[in-house]
Every structure is written in C-alpha cells, then in structure tokens.
Amino acid sequence: MSRDQVVEVAAERPYQVIIGHRLHDRIPGLVGEDARRAAVLHPPTMIEAAERIVHALDVSGIEPVRIDVPDGEAAKTAQVAARCWSVLGTAGFTRSDAIVGLGGGATTDLAGFVAATWLRGVRYVAVPTSLLAMVDAAVGGKTGINTPEGKNLVGAFHEPAGVLCDLDTLTSLPLPELRSGLAEVVKCGFIADPEILSLIEADPAVAPDPAGEVIAELVRRAVQVKAGVVSADLREATSVGTRIGREALNYGHTFGHAIEQHERYRWRHGEAISTGMVFVAELARHAGLIDDALAERHRSILASLQLPTSYRAGTFEALRALMAVDKKSRGTTLRFVVLHGLARPAILAGPAPELLEAAYADIC
Ligand SMILES: NC(=O)c1ccc[n+]([C@@H]2O[C@H](COP(=O)([O-])OP(=O)(O)OC[C@H]3O[C@@H](n4cnc5c(N)ncnc54)[C@H](O)[C@@H]3O)[C@@H](O)[C@H]2O)c1
Ligand SMILES: O=C(O)C(=O)C[C@@H](O)[C@H](O)[C@H](O)COP(=O)(O)O
Ligand SMILES: [Zn+2]
C-alpha cells in the first residue's frame, strides 16, 4: 500500500484511524495545541520507537515524559495504573496535557485507562504496534485493566483523539503475535465482512506477511468493521432481545476470556478468542442457528492460520464459573454472541446446559 488510508470513526467525538507508513511525526499534532506535556506509555519492546516519539515531541515544544510499563498483560493491573498516576502527578500533568499509548493492545488498554481516569479524563493518542491493537484494541475507546477475578473488569469508555497504525512496526512483530491479531480480523469477517474470510482463504500463508499487500487490506477492512460498529453503539448499549450492537465485537470472547484467565494469560488473547469462536460456532450449530458448513468454516480458516481450535477436556466447570463474570452476563444468565448466519450476529441468552456441554465436547 503506497498511500495512507484513513478510516473515520463517527462516535461521540469523531476521530481518524490512519493506516500507513512512517506516521510518528503526526503525534505532536494529535497531542494537541494546548498540551505542554505528553506522557508516552510503552513496554520494553518499544523503547526505540518511544525514543523517536519523545524526540518528535521535544522538538515540537511539548515536554515528553516516558513511562516504561511491564510487557503484555502484566501492564493491565491496578498497581501499574497507580504508578502511572503517580508519575503524572509528580510531573504536574493538567487537563490540557496528553497521554500517548505506544505498544500492543495490553499497553493501549492501560494507557487509555490512565488517560480516562487522570483528572477524570485527558486527551489520549493511540499508537498501536501489534496487529491486534491496530485492528481492534486501539480503536473504539474501550480501555481497562484486569482484576484477580477476571479480564477487563475495571475500565472506562474513553475515545482517542486519533489512532496511528504504522504498518512498518509490524515487521518486528513475532509471527505468533501476527497470527494472534489475525484471530480478531477473522472475527470481523464472521460478524460483518465475509470478504475478509475470502481474502484469507485464498492464501492463508500470505495473510501474516507484515510487508504484504494482503495484510494492509485486512487491517483496513477490520478497522472499518470496528469503526462502523462503535460509531453506532460506542457504549455497548444496544441490545434488545437478540438485536445487537457493539456486543457483536465480543464474538468468541465469552469462552475466550475464560480460557485466558484459566491459563493465567499464558495464551495470547487472539489464540483464546480463536478457540472461543469455534466453541460458540458449535454452540450455535447445536442450537440450530447455523449449519454444519459455517461451523466447519470457523475451524478450517483458524486452523489454516495455525491458531488453536480446541481446548483441554475436564475444565468445563471452571470455565463456566469464569464465564459468569463476563460483562454480557445478566444476573445468573450467560449471554453469548452467536451467528444466525454469516455476518448475522445475535445474542443467545441462557443456552441449556446440554448445549454448552455439547459445544465443549466438540472442541475437546
Ligand atoms: N480495548 C479493546 O477494544 C481491545 C480489543 C482487543 C483486545 N484488547 C486487549 O488487547 C490485549 C492483547 O493485545 P496484543 O495481542 O497486542 O498483546 P500485547 O499488548 O501483550 O502485545 C503482544 C506482544 O507483542 C509485543 N509487541 C507489540 N508490538 C510489537 C512490535 N511492533 N514489535 C515487536 N514486539 C511487539 C509486546 O511487547 C508483547 O510482548 C489484551 O489485553 C486484550 O484484552 C482490547
Ligand atoms: O471493542 C469491543 O467492544 C470488543 O469487544 C473488542 C474485543 O476484541 C476486545 O477483546 C475487548 O477488550 C473485549 O471487551 P470486554 O468488554 O469483553 O472486556
Ligand atoms: Zn478481543
């Protein structure tokens, strides 16, 4: 892709997702004219990119404050958020100052949360560096941290001022992380844009190539799906009966989040969501909502990307308990995002235990 692509997000505060190359110079502009300081939160893997951003801020007359956070899921804790607040307080961050989140989805979730909570909300710029963060985590304003009881249980909706997806950064991303990001891309294919599935099925081996044309098209399409959904239902408030808004983006996540926590975050998010999508496809098949071919398409496309499609037997009770704290639950009723057909997401509330057990047996 030679030119930058721009996807507009028309939520409460409209902003752009820019997908392209060498985008870091745009950060000072997004941080805003009023900002005197900007904090750059990043994991150890992103130190060189962080230094470049720090330099760009500095020459623009914005005082940079670099905040090193732990890698991956270890960043999404109350303790790490509290350390960030402490740095901001010591540096005298005011409401006109800004936060930049540079890294994978774990970092952008934390950075967005710190921006949402510092002084009840300051400007936030997302600079996702993993495929998963570009296509999903950095777009849409869901920010948050985990608690010992579950995934993403504390958070806020806080939209970024802009999102910069610099495809050049994907060249250093390890292949398993690229594959993990593709799970969320496949999710967008099943819930809204089947052309994504066709593009991957045409040649699954080229999909994760960070320098390829296909990945650029997949990023654009997945961001477009996410932008469309969050523009219509930012706060995940549209859900009447089986009608569904933002909850559609949670496809595969009820079971997937339970796996992540059960595995103490040793599975990547996309890997857990991959198995979660196969589980929920089997659930929909047993409920008579989709046919065998559509359920099988989940397995085949995810397996072709070398993503997991199964899980250990003998863990259902533990996973069932973890699913109970999913944000889609109401009282004691589990609610799953299912398909009623390709690109027709809906809610299945309170499926019978036999259906859940049959779907679990299918993935063991
Ligand atoms: N807020 C949302 O809407 C949303 C959506 C999807 C996922 N998420 C969250 O995102 C997280 C998963 O994101 P992730 O898969 O990016 O995981 P991650 O942030 O843990 O990043 C994965 C690994 O890749 C490394 N990395 C990132 N960019 C790199 C690069 N360019 N080069 C080399 N290494 C790089 C990271 O340091 C880390 O080790 C989960 O916590 C998930 O819950 C949030
Ligand atoms: O943006 C959304 O909405 C999503 O559900 C996207 C998911 O891919 C993402 O993993 C999100 O963090 C899950 O949110 P949660 O509300 O289930 O914690
Ligand atoms: Zn996800």
UniProtKB/TrEMBL annotation:
Its cofactor is Co(2+); Zn(2+); NAD(+). InterPro entries: Dehydroquinate_synthase, DHQ_synth_AroB, DHQ_synth_fam, DHQS/DOIS_N, DHQS_C. It catalyses: 7-phospho-2-dehydro-3-deoxy-D-arabino-heptonate = 3-dehydroquinate + phosphate. It is found in: Cytoplasm. Residues 67-179 form the 3-dehydroquinate synthase N-terminal domain. GO terms for cellular component: cytoplasm. Zn(2+) binds at residues 184, 253, 269. Keywords: Amino-acid biosynthesis, Aromatic amino acid biosynthesis, Cobalt, Cytoplasm, Lyase, Metal-binding, NAD, Nucleotide-binding, Zinc. Pathway: Metabolic intermediate biosynthesis; chorismate biosynthesis; chorismate from D-erythrose 4-phosphate and phosphoenolpyruvate: step 2/7. It comes from the Bacteria. Binds 1 divalent metal cation per subunit. Can use either Co(2+) or Zn(2+). The keyword Metal-binding applies. Residues 181-329 form the 3-dehydroquinate synthase C-terminal domain. Its main location: cytoplasm. GO terms for biological process: amino acid biosynthetic process; aromatic amino acid family biosynthetic process; chorismate biosynthetic process. GO terms for molecular function: 3-dehydroquinate synthase activity; metal ion binding; nucleotide binding. NAD(+) binds at residues 71-76, 105-109, 129-130, 142, 151. Pfam families: DHQ_synthase, DHQS_C. Its EC number is 4.2.3.4. The keyword Metal-binding applies. Belongs to the sugar phosphate cyclases superfamily. Dehydroquinate synthase family. Catalyzes the conversion of 3-deoxy-D-arabino-heptulosonate 7-phosphate (DAHP) to dehydroquinate (DHQ). This is 3-dehydroquinate synthase. It comes from Microlunatus phosphovorus (strain ATCC 700054 / DSM 10555 / JCM 9379 / NBRC 101784 / NCIMB 13414 / VKM Ac-1990 / NM-1). The lineage of its organism: Bacteria, Bacillati, Actinomycetota, Actinomycetes, Propionibacteriales.
